Amino acid sequence: MGLVPRVALNPYKLGFELWQYIENRRNRREVVEHLLRVEGVTWRNFADTVDLDAVQAMLEPDPEMADPAASLDALEADDPRVDAEALSAARRGPSDDGGIDVERYPWKLLTYEGLAERHYSLSKPQHRGFLKRISQAELEKISRYLFETDRYDAVAAAVAAVDRTAGWDRMREVRESHNDVTFLDAFLTPEFVDENDYFTYEYTRTTGDFRVTSDAAEDVKKKLMLQFTNFGKPTIAVKDGNFRNRNELLLVHRYNGVQLDVTRAKQTLERVFELWGRPVALKTVRKELDDHDIEVARRRDTEPEPTEQGTLIRFDGESFEETDLPDEEIEELVATDIDYDTKPDEWL
Question: In the 8-state DSSP scheme, what is residue 320?
């Protein structure tokens, strides 16, 4: 059964941007946690006491990590960011058996820690403003849950202690604990929606075309969640296998504000009839608008408010019958809670 037209979306672009956001946000939190432990710095005076431009400069990778091939002689084997065995092989040169060509494979000289510094997200040109965009509310929240007692006497000392692997570690945790839908639910924040200019749009009856309807994070999230939940398909449940005591099958559409494509719903009922062998019925909700409401809304440059009408669609093998349902039955059809846990436990 189909839905009405949905928001066009490139899910791969969305996923990539969310992963970048998760990495950036965790790295930013790591930096801010250290800065809030500098003597004299609090979440209230943070903007006035910390020079974030200077902090940004301190976060740039060391030259040895940014270009290890050019710094081969300066690298030290006991540096935790350097792979000692790879360093030895690189200094022997590519002509030696087991040697490494550092011009082609400079990354082989670095450990996980070294690679994390070399590719540190907050130092990438496209993300260098992310640190400065932290809100006062986020500063207060981080400070509230900051239980560590170690203090720093200067900003430089705090930045030097920042763990550059924090963002990568967080991404690994998220990968293991989330599916597509819970991933969106947890990390599609107002900040992300605003930074990436996401919005919803709908077909408007007053203008006869598609218009932007909202750029609020909760609206964008709801639209996306509905697309990813149950693979974007409406949720239909079996309600009764002996409907009206006549061995008829009753199905119920868990209505979430999006009405069914009635044509496709009827096609599906025809197929279900072939399987069931007896009449099948479906309870759903349709949205109704009258011409007067549409005309008034057009004059006011607004969108008319549809009336929700419960409907029973029944197919007996030969013809369809549609019957209005009493208003109280609409409440039974509304999906107040959406099950976002669509990934079986054994997949984890």
Answer: E
Among 3-7, 63-67, 70-74, 157-161, whose mean pLDDT is lowest? Answer: 3-7
Q: Look at the block and give the residue holding tokens 């500063």.
A: 139
Q: Among 92-106, 134-148, 324-338, which stretch is predicted with the lowest mean pLDDT? A: 324-338
**Residue 5: pLDDT above 60?**
no
- In the DSSP assignment, the letter for residue 263 is H
Greatest Cα pair distance, the chain, in angstroms, is: 86
Q: Could you tell me which residues come within 8 angstroms of residue 48 by beta carbon, excluding any fewer than 6 positions away? A: none
> What is the pTM for the complete model shown?
0.70
**What pLDDT, on the 0 to 100 scale, is given for residue 346?**
36
CB 86 within 8 A of CB 130: no
Residue 110 · residue 79 · CB < 8 Å? no
Tokens of 93: 């040169």
Rounded CA-CA distance 199/195 in Å is 11
Q: Identity (one letter) of the amino acid at 76?
A: E
H/E run at residue 85? helix 84-92
pLDDT attached to residue 54: 97
